[in-house]
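User: Hey, quick favor. My workstation is busy. Could you predict this chain's structure for me?
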Amino acid sequence: QVQLVESGGGLVQAGGSLRLSCGVSGGIRVTGAMGWYRQAPGKQRDLVATITRGGTTNYADSVKGRFTLSRDNAKNTVYLQMNSLKPEDTAVYYCNADIMFMNYWGQGTQVTVSS
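Assistant: No problem, here it is.
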């Protein structure tokens, strides 16, 4: 059974950094895109960043220059390095992956940035 396992959320002061990780369990080789989305209270879930197996990335304008998404294909894992965090980055962050023509979500990890 495919599962996305997230880690790395937490509380940080504005200007600080966090690193999120998302690994895919189930022994499946992930050939599709992987990425992160986030949802703040009362708002819709929005794209943060995605990365293809070949390493092509796409970022939301609001995080460009501050967040970096990378991928380790051998480990079926993506890493979101978040620097210069702002209070408006506060949200639940969800990992997403395209696997075998299906789309999967992680359970979400809370990121809270205090001012």
